[in-house]
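To illustrate this point, we now present one chain and its tokenised fold:
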Amino acid sequence: MIRIIGVLIVLMFWMTKLSAQHQLTLSQCLERSMKASHLLRAASYQEDKAEVALSMSRSQRLPRVSLGSSYTRIGKLTTIEFSTSPGAPPRKLTFGAPNRVNFDVRLQVPLFTWWRIEHSIDLARLGKKFTELKTEKQRIDLTAQVLQAFYGALLNRKIVELTKENLERKQKYFSITEKRYKAGQLPRLELLRAQVQVKNEQSNLETAHGNYEKSLIFLAKTVGTPENLIEPVGELTFTPVTDDPSTILKRALARRIELQQFAMQEKMIDAQQRIIASANKPNLSLFSSYSMLNGFDPMNPEKFFTNYNIGVQLSWALFDGFNTRYQRQSSQLDRMAVQEQKNEIEELIRMQVRQALVSIKQAEQKITAQQENIRLAKETLEMAQTQYENGFISSLDLLDAQKVLLQMEMAYWQTLFGHVTAKIELGKAMGSFHWFEDQL
């Protein structure tokens, strides 16, 4: 009795705890997780960084203006003495000033770079799209994680319910056994066996509650509220997959983010090759400068003079030690490696889709059979309870009937969860979770 009271107290504590939790639907969990995800925020910063890199590439088209200044202290200056007339003191001419100062403003504008700037802008633009694909992949992975956590919590909640129902059956079995024991129909051994069964099931219920709480903790972390537990609002339901396997595979190959990333990498390598090809081509630029400096007037060394120049500069690397050739070879090897990785991912996608479809088919076949098994197990248990109460069967027969029913119920819901998990894996392979749209 004390044990039963303790379990009731634990259950009341759990009910109070759950009532204080936030109740969220699947769509609300996904919405919160997208806002709270540290990885998504990090991915958004990478997108911002890629946008900055694109702006930096575009800035190559703009002129470069630089300001320069220097100060030089000269210890000994060149001096010439000469006489202007007989008897007059000699005169001195000093070339330069002991304190030399100059200011210089330079301007340089690229006129023609063999499209090197345009190719670098294209490369930066492709890099930005690549980071956007990485963000989208992070969203898909986070969606799959939330789905897994949400339905995992629903499964553990259902296990709590099934264990609680089985505890009620054990308690009913104990009541019947106690009544028959008092009537002298059963020995004390049967009463003790019934008590043990009740205590074992109470322990199982506590374990089920603990597992449920751990799944809620994981769900809260996934949603982004680790300090506040979340109670999922929903039920595990069976929704068969009716899509054609060939259509699923085509969608997976068309939508898989990794394949899109490899395609983007190939474009980036092409842009890089165009940049490499322009490295040893002529470049034309406009330059101009305006300067102020002193020390040029021997009669007035401290006077500042101004000057300016403007011109066109042509640069052409005639020989770069075969560096361009080696860069081309390296880039081509990168492209070949990306192609092989792309082929590997395609094979992996085909395998993942096939495995997920097999798992879904197996689960759907089991679900149909297990529903009938549960119906038969319930009918068997009802008959066993009536026969045990009337003394026609032993307690072991009744316990076997209870055990079979619990096993059938557990197997059904675990198979249903396995079906959901297989759909999540298939959704990751496809980059789409449209099977869950009715709950989003």
